[in-house]
User: What shape does this take?
Amino acid sequence: MLAGAGFTDIETKMIRLPLCAWGQDARQQRIGQENKDNIRRLLSSFAIFPFTRRLGMPIEAVNNLINGAAVDAANAALKPYFPL
Assistant: This one.
């Protein structure tokens, strides 16, 4: 897209945004720790509509699914991250 617009020196870099405190340095660990609450809210906001309205799941089942995903996202051993 940028090359099509005439740019020539294009570089890309993927940044891993930690979902919990697993980062390799203190800054990344702090970012991950602060992200835990954001991820919990994000999982809930992304999941409720499609699972309840589209798939017809009961809200209790969706909440159980969200809770399981939040536990996994908070597991530093899994090193979960969002690629940016």
Observations:
- The CA atoms of residues 40 and 67 lie 8 Å apart.
